[in-house]
Amino acid sequence: MRVVIVDHSHEDCSTEVGILQAAGHEVEVTQVHEERDVIAALRGADAAIAEYGLFTDAVFQALPNLKMVSNFAMGVDNIDLDAARARGVAVANSPDYCFDEVAEHGMALIAALLRNVVDYAIDVKNHIWDWSKAPKLKRIHGLTLGLIGCGQIPRRAARIAQGFGMEVIGYDPFLPEETARAAGIELVSMEELGARADAVLSHVPLSKSTREMVNQDVFRLFRKQPVFVNTSRGLTVDEHALCEALRNGTISRAALDVIVSETPDFTEEIFSAPHVFFTPHAAFYSETALDEANRTAANNVVAFFNGEYDKVRFVVQPAGR
User: Fold this and answer.
1) DSSP letters of 74-104?
2) In degrees to the nearest 10, what's the CA dihedral of 142, 143, 147, 153?
3) Is 12 helix (H, G, I), strand (E, B) or coil?
4) In this model, does residue 11 exceed pLDDT 70?
5) What's the pLDDT score for residue 117?
6) How many CB atoms lie within 10 A of CB 282?
7) Given pLDDT bands bounded at 50, 70 and 90, which one contains residue 181?
8) How far apart are CA 285 and CA 290, in angstroms?
């Protein structure tokens, strides 16, 4: 089978290439993203491994031989899942490779905001030695963390927050009460979360229903001028509304690992908003996590063509399986 690694953010693809070649597959590594280039790269291919490469209905229509797309990432918003299903193309992902890293990163950003770490570090770098320049800080122990979305990653973040002595509340209409209780999370309405939270961690998967779900109506519910962190996808937050919330003080400070444009030119409104700092979509990263994602993406392909469907991390299963 011919397998094409369409795009990748890591430099070395030798792990996944080695796994695929050992299983007898022909492998080609490219670095393309846009629809036209993806189609050109995948002419005659049986499977694709991708990260951000776009798989639209037009892509699937142009590639009748394509049987599978395996994503390096847990997110699959680069793939039109309905189109894949309609065309009989299987889709797999790496759903749990960086749960710990993203939870750790999210809580590191929360702690950095609540303790003014970044601004202090910038001041000292600029030869300013003055603790009193910080906003009014509160002891983290006893504060309330509000989770927007209570999936696997936020539930891990909840345990870290509890280690700080924080109370954890969460909004997630799909999470069973017993699952929340086991993670030490009190499920509440969005209105109650807005009223009680001193810090808010937003982490929801991107879908049609979650696009800009954290918007002006949500920010208006915040009563305690919380700090705000997003570690999921930029498009789940209305960036203009976030900028307004930062300017009018509804949110005191923010830290974002993700923004709407993943290839920023730094002229976007969010970069001129006050009291916000960024990390470059890095929450997923550790060498351990990358190796796990690379192996999972390749092993999904190997297991699929071996007919070992129970070993494939399917998002879309092929018809009849």
Assistant:
1) S--TTB-HHHHHHHT-EEE--TTTTHHHHHH
2) -60
3) coil
4) yes
5) 98
6) 14
7) very high
8) 7
Bridge partner list, 220: none
Terminal Cα-to-Cα distance of the chain (whole angstroms)? 20
Token representation of residue 22: 């050992």
- How far is 165 from 159, CA to CA, in rounded Å? 10
Distance CA 138, CA 144 (A): 11
C-beta of residue 318 within 8 angstroms of C-beta of residue 90: yes
Give residue-wise pLDDT tens across range 235-277: 999 999 999 999 999 999 999 999 999 889 899 999 999 999 9
Structure tokens at 39: 């189609």
Determine the residue type at 23: A
Report which secondary-structure segment, H or E, holds 29.
strand 26-29
Q: Are 4 and 42 in contact (CB under 8 A)?
A: yes
Residues classed as catalytic: 233, 262, 281
State the amino acid at position 33 in one-letter form.
H
Do 308 and 300 form a contact (C-beta atoms < 8 A)? no
How remote is the C-alpha of 90 from its chain's centroid? 22
**Three-state secondary structure call for residue 114:** helix
